[in-house]
Amino acid sequence: xxxxxxxxxxxxxxxxxxxxxxxxxxxxxxxxxxxxxxxxxxxxxxxxxxxxxxxxxxxxxxxxxxxxxxxxxxxxxxxxxxxxxxxxxxxxxxxxxxxxxxxxxxxxxxxxxxxxxxxxxxxxxxxxxxxxxxxxxxxxxxxxxxxxxxxxxxxxxxxxxxxxxxxxxxxxxxxxxxxxxxxxxxxxxxxxxxxxxxxxxxxxxxxxxxxxxxxxxxxxxxxxxxxxxxx
Length: 231
What we know:
Layout: E1 4-8, H1 12-24, E2 28-32, H2 35-44, E3 49-53, H3 61-71, E4 76-80, H4 85-93, E5 98-101, H5 106-124, E6 135-137, E7 140-143, E8 148-151, E9 154-156, H6 160-171, E10 177-178, H7 179-187, H8 195-210, E11 220-223, E12 227-230
Parallel strand pairs: 1-2, 1-3, 3-4, 4-5
Antiparallel strand pairs: 6-7, 7-8, 8-9, 10-12, 11-12
Helix pairs in contact: 1-5, 2-3, 4-8, 5-6, 6-7, 6-8
Pfam families: Response_reg (PF00072), Trans_reg_C (PF00486)
Organism: Enorma shizhengliae
Domain OmpR/PhoB-type: 132-231
């Protein structure tokens, strides 16, 4: 089956152009020009990735993101004309995986789509011949083969990025992982000034899911000015 991508933007020219580039890469693309049509598609169809414009005339991109994260963990890339750290942090806090500011180069967006899909595919499947042992830390259990996480035997639904962060820290248990190393390992991109906020927001979101108190952490500890560790 072809990979299915939802593209939502009220600027028809942009939506259609992105659709053309993605279809040229062999993806099946569903286009929506308003939030209502996008919400209907999200609730009735299955996708592997979504590209959401934030500023829509009816239902904004943040609300669509909330709808997706209610039931799905597939990657979401946010589009916006506003280069605002506040918007970026809000989107990441709600579970967005990437953030692209308009105007953008279509080929760069396609590259980001491919990167997110590679991560999602890796998150969703693994060669069964490469069986790995469970990672168990103080009630937190990570099953690398099933790509699952439980805390006190209760399942935790993580996005691919959240899972990658948790797994990387767990695999480096007892070592303080610098923020720069964590970002490069998970995002596979060069670290920039804004990257620290990106990591911080995802860590916060991950802590909420695993029931970790930042002031008195059970799992993820923040070593100020250095990075994070799981002991």
